[in-house]
Design brief:
InterPro entries: F420-G6PD/mer, Luciferase-like_dom, Luciferase-like_sf
CATH superfamily of the largest domain: Luciferase-like domain
GO molecular function: monooxygenase activity; oxidoreductase activity, acting on paired donors, with incorporation or reduction of molecular oxygen
Radius of gyration: 21 Å
Protein name: Alkanesulfonate monooxygenase SsuD/methylene tetrahydromethanopterin reductase-like flavin-dependent oxidoreductase (Luciferase family)
Number of helices: 15
Largest sheet: 9 strands, parallel
CATH topology of the largest domain: TIM Barrel
Structural class: alpha/beta
CATH architecture of the largest domain: Alpha-Beta Barrel
Keywords: Monooxygenase, Oxidoreductase
């Protein structure tokens, strides 16, 4: 099992906790991840991470494939490889975004997410191999041409020395996209975090995709990177509310596939999901938050004293089938946290 951290991307002011970067780099954490929404971008901070650390790997979880072309994404990660040197792990973590962000923010038309991801990954892999990048897909044609007309220009190949071993991973909350990742990617970044026992949900989905690979793969050999929110507190009853707020919003404002309703249901809380959705969409937001059970939060988050967190970490989370990204202050209502939990977590993991 590998362990990483994530740079906060959900506040209105973007900054990087350099002290934390240097700490986890020295402690032996495996990865630092960044993300993007409609605030900061996810790639710029990785250059800072590489400069501020000595050995830790870097990746995105996630950047949006609707925000930049596939060759541009490949160029960015190849440039990062040259900056980072040959020994650090680099993970190109991708996501599909959604129709609203694609059209209202990026000003681009929404195309089918399944096929767009397949086209995007195929192009990035060609670029990483240093090949001539020519692709004719369902959502993407390189070189560009109008339907029924030949391209005006010849396809091109990268000028920079390339690295075919940069890993491409992507996520999604639907069975279709997770099976898609298992078929064509180097790992999975599922929506909604992780929790003990979730492998029983993901295993049959991943097995469908892994069976379609040119060389079939076992689930145990297919990397999964998910996040777990960790809150050190001496008052669980007081602080559990911020996670209920998050769950209610994710369930009520994102009711479709891949949203909070589907996540709650997959974890055995279908009745709760229905009730929270009903209340939230009726404008009864506080009641929706209160409808999220304490036991659900306690089961799928790590909160409490350092001793309580480490005990539950050892008993339920370590080696449960997933690489984990520890987040101590990266959810919408979180306040900046200190760094005291990072050493005990990796000490418990590494023994």
């Amino acid at each position: 099992m590998k362990i990483g951290i994530e740079i906060d991307w959900q506040r209105t002011k973007f900054d990087v906790n350099r002290e934390r970067l240097e700490l986890v780099d020295g402690l032996g954490y495996d990865m630092v991840f960044t993300a993007e929404n409609i605030g900061n971008d996810g790639l710029t901070p990785l250059g800072y991470v590489v400069a501020a650390t000595k050995r830790i790997g870097v990746g995105t979880r996630i950047i949006q494939n609707t925000a930049r072309t596939a060759p541009m994404a490949a160029m960015s990660f190849q440039t990062l490889r040259h900056m980072a040197g040959p020994d650090r792990e680099i993970i190109a973590g991708l996501g599909n975004s959604n129709p609203a962000k694609t059209e209202a923010w990026h000003g681009l038309p929404w195309t089918p997410a399944y096929w767009r991801m397949r086209d995007y990954v195929a192009v990035m892999k060609k670029a990483f191999r240093g090949e001539v990048v020519a692709h004719e897909g369902k959502t993407l044609a390189i070189p560009f041409h109008h339907p029924g007309e030949p391209p005006k220009y010849e396809p091109m190949r990268p000028l920079l020395e390339t690295d075919p071993d940069i890993k491409i991973m992507f996520g999604g909350g639907t069975e279709l996209m997770m099976a898609n990742a298992a078929e064509i990617a180097d790992g999975l970044m599922p929506n909604g975090g992780w929790a003990p026992g979730m492998m029983k949900v993901y295993r049959p989905i991943l097995e469908k995709g892994l069976a379609k690979r040119a060389t079939p793969m076992r689930v145990e050999d297919f990397p999964i990177w998910a996040h777990v929110d960790v809150l050190v507190t001496d008052d669980i009853e007081r602080d559990i509310g911020q996670f209920k707020e998050y769950v209610a919003k994710w369930t009520g404002a994102h009711p479709g596939k891949g949203g909070g309703h589907e996540l709650l249901t997959s974890r055995g809380y279908g009745d709760v999901a229905d009730r929270v959705l009903e209340l939230y969409q009726a404008g009864r937001v506080k009641e929706a938050q209160d409808a999220v059970p304490d036991e659900y939060i306690d089961e799928y988050w790590l909160l409490g004293s350092v001793d309580r967190i480490i005990q539950r970490w050892r008993d339920k989370w370590i080696n449960d089938g997933c690489n984990l990204i520890v987040r101590t202050d990266n959810w919408p209502s979180a306040k900046p946290a200190d760094n005291r939990i990072y050493e005990p977590l990796i000490r418990a993991l590494r023994g």
